Amino acid sequence: MTEEKVHINEVLEPILRQVPDPEIPVLSILDLGVVREAILEGNKATIKITPTYSGCPAMDVIGDDIVSALAKEGYEAKVNLILAPAWSTNWITERGRKALEDYGIAAPLEESADKKALLGEEKIVKCPQCKSTNTHLVSQFGSTACKALFKCDNCEEPFDYFKCLI
Amino acid sequence: MNNNFIKYLYGIADNSLILGQRLGELTGHAPSLEVDIALTNISLDLFGQVRSYFQYAAQLSEDDITEDDLAFLRTEREYLNVLLVEQPNTDFAYTIARQFLFDHFHMLLMTEMQKSKDETLVAIAKKSIKEVSYHKRFSSDWIKRLGDGTEESKQRIQKAVNDLWRFTDELFHTTEADEAMIKEGIAVDVKMLKDVYYKNVNEVLETATLEVPELKYFQKGGKEGIHSEHMGFLLNDMQYMQRTYPGMKW
């Protein structure tokens, strides 16, 4: 679900798809939705990326990874960081959500459900291991800026939940 | 106008920078692992926001400066943060009370900044508000948990709120630069946020079964660069690497 059309050059697309999020390596930066534009002119590529969180330390790494991935294919890339429009978890693709779940990270809920889950009002975050909703919030802040820490009361496993950001 | 604009940016950015530095001091020292991670995550969000403001200020400035120069190479009097954010961590109650009193202000500021005539400020505000709402939820929850917790926790959080209350009024002061930018439609008129701030804060305190402090005299100065005795020590810690090894990179 993408709010506006994102233009990604079709030659660059497969290369960018190979670039993973450094903190969640199963997730391509395209599926994470941080690439907002990719233009190719001759062998010069201009890529616009937007941070998930303002202080996300992965942004510099993502920028470097894009440049080196494109350099390998003979393209000279310039990466620009843009702030608007602000990134939203709605920009994570279906494929991205599936990759998160398979990796053991619960994908973001819708905004209203997210609030209830984080406030501990309702048990709606599904354990990515056993799929039970019998889970509880341990901390609103997890191992990275974008995640909260949950624990499953069914299989007893702790797990990360990718916080909803709209 | 450029000069006033840059000063206005310092005022907002320095609040986040100095509070972020204070929270960073707690890395590995918070009472529990979850709280440690939460406080440093908040610190990281604040630093991220600071980078956006400083990159913008560096771009507007006529001097050849970078975001790092602004963070690490100014003198104490050139920092324009409010006194509240430079107050020491002291203990967990003070850390939470300071965060709570700032987050509620920060939330209102980011809400209003989205109406600025300046596009970059609007973009930063739209990005930051999502993060700040998590901070506010975290600190407000802890106020309630400590206030409505044990005798000991209640007494300690009440003392922290009482002690830090004298720094809240300054949040709503404006400098000459602020006033000039308010006229341009760029800055938020923080004077207008005061009533709703105290209403929101008092509501949480009441839910937490805490007393709202009654105070007639407040402290100010930070916004004009006149800081408390704690600021020098904080800056010393924050700046020594760049002062000792100028231009050093990570």
From TrEMBL, chain A:
InterPro entries attached to this UniProt entry: Fe-S_Maturation_MIP18 (IPR052339), FSCA_dom_sf (IPR034904), MIP18-like (IPR002744), PaaD-like (IPR011883), Zn_ribbon_PaaD (IPR056572)
Span of domain MIP18 family-like: 15-72
Transmembrane segments: none
Domain of life of the source: Bacteria
Domain annotation PaaD zinc beta ribbon: ranges: 113-163
Record-linked NCBIfam families: PA_CoA_Oxy4
Record protein name field: Ring-1,2-phenylacetyl-CoA epoxidase subunit PaaD
Protein source organism: Mesonia algae
Species classification: Bacteria, Pseudomonadati, Bacteroidota, Flavobacteriia, Flavobacteriales
Automatic annotation (TrEMBL), chain B:
GO biological process: phenylacetate catabolic process
SUPFAM superfamilies noted in UniProt: Ferritin-like (SSF47240)
InterPro entries noted in UniProt: Aromatic_CoA_ox/epox, Ferritin-like, Ferritin-like_SF, PaaA_PaaC, PaaC
Record's GO cellular component terms: cytosol
Alphabetical list of PANTHER family matching this protein: 1,2-PHENYLACETYL-COA EPOXIDASE, SUBUNIT C, PHENYLACETIC ACID DEGRADATION PROTEIN PAA
Name of this protein: Ring-1,2-phenylacetyl-CoA epoxidase subunit PaaC
Organism: Mesonia algae
